[in-house]
Amino acid sequence: xxxxxxxxxxxxxxxxxxxxxxxxxxxxxxxxxxxxxxxxxxxxxxxxxxxxxxxxxxxxxxxxxxxxxxxxxxxxxxxxxxxxxxxxxxxxxxxxxxxxxxxxxxxxxxxxxxxxxxxxxxxxxxxxxxxxxxxxxxxxxxxxxxxxxxxxxxxxxxxxxxxxxxxxxxxxxxxxxxxxxxxxxxxxxxxxxxxxxxxxxxxxxxxxxxxxxxxxxxxxxxxxxxxxxxxxxxxxxxxxxxxxxxxxxxxxxxxxxxxxxxxxxxx
Amino acid sequence: xxxxxxxxxxxxxxxxxxxxxxxxxxxxxxxxxxxxxxxxxxxxxxxxxxxxxxxxxxxxxxxxxxxxxxxxxxxxxxxxxxxxxxxxxxxxxxxxxxxxxxxxxxxxxxxxxxxxxxxxxxxxxxxxxxxxxxxxxxxxxxxxxxxxxxxxxxxxxxxxxxxxxxxxxxxxxxxxxxxxxxxxxxxxxxxxxxxxxxxxxxxxxxxxxxxxxxxxxxxxxxxxxxxxxxxxxxxxxxxxxxxxxxxxxxxxxxxxxxxxxxxxxxxxxxxxxxxxxxxxxxxxxxxxxxxxxxxxxxxxxxxxxxxxxxxxxxxxxxxxxxxxxxxxxxxxxxxxxxxxxxxxxxxxxxxxxxxxxxx
Lengths: 267, 359
Prior knowledge:
A: MetI-like fold; 84% helix; B: 3 domains; six-stranded mixed β-sheet
């Protein structure tokens, strides 16, 4: 009897803790959207800087995601399918950008890509300025968000039973053809979901971008700039629009995961 | 066609240890073994999907190490079919098809067209196996590797599909290697049986050899032989009508006569065996039962009592107690009924000397 009472009490405490955490996560976003959402959407028509900033954010995040997908897909496939020396080190290395503070990532990138550096200097010689341009934004976004794509894509490839690929090989396909005809289609949902996660993470990046490229301003930098220059009321509509835009990748991810769970059960 | 020499390979917890197997062009080989014995691993090594850590693999006389799976002119069908879920049933069958004519022939012979309107994920396990089989055959391979391909089929379809595969094997001159744990299937299909356990080949030969002449008591028990006795064999001369010791007469093909002592019973055997300690194996199907002593050609005849009668459809297994030694005979249920067999009944069990295999 006493044991049952303790169980009930523990259940109540656990439910309370979970509810509090949920409330803590949802309340600020809800408050932000209810306070500044309509004003933010109205600003889209009148605030040219906000429109430019959102376009720049979307463009650079898409470019960074494209680069991440191009480089990350073979990397993720190799990590999922191959056993090679240094694989564990490579995996740890890929997690590193996710663990270090993002301003630190910005400083590291500045050291590598700044005009004083070998890489930055060489790029300048070729007429390509990275720091202080959209290239710098893309570089910062790529650095902080690509590991998320690689991690998700690796999981997506690992989920594809290698025997599908084996069967395709015995049916006459070369490894490249197997990748195109079997592996890629079977992993496509997971890859797309990982790309969406990467894109969303790139859009929300601030710490590394603000060090590499303050101007032109992406949306996160613009909301920070408005806050420090004009105060909360000016920053509120920009921040609310950003929060609302986050619903787009969130909805996409939900749709992809639902489809994925419905199409399971092969074999 | 296939020659594995001392092949060692590992995949997860499955491994092959020094496996040597050969299958001639046009032969139908059957690999028998318990779960986890390395049967699928062996097929994957032959298909080139798993590289052996030692040993050699030859296909058609050529060193297969240089050949990628797609260049080995083979098809592999897994037990779980592995149909591509992102393709239609028809696209699956046509995936690696050699040409339109072959595709049509396979579609007709296995009647897979009936599934073309269905979704791959909606097919039953048996239907998936048929589609996977059609997909493999449509490639028109020289070598067909089958991993328990009929296991999910219902008995009627299993018979039909098995017959069709065997017919295709003949018509196209295929070399086929099939994994199964169904001994009856092995006997029906195989020109050559390969018995695998714990990654090692225990015995290989024609199914008749493997089933009637098991290389060890373990093989005999694994293959379902219920009468396996330990004892000592000594060579005797076969001077009819009595067995005379100390006159080891030689027979054609090296066959000699033996007396095998086990638990107070003497079993007579004829064959190419070695004298000494070993085991005697008698398949239950080789033992006949009568209510009285009858004069026939059987050299082994024992009186005993029925201890158990177990009817399974048209077959009845009868266990006898012969001077404390259990002996299992298999006879038709009709015969068992006619003899009115029941526990406690005194009967005579008899079997020929050639039915006793010493190993």
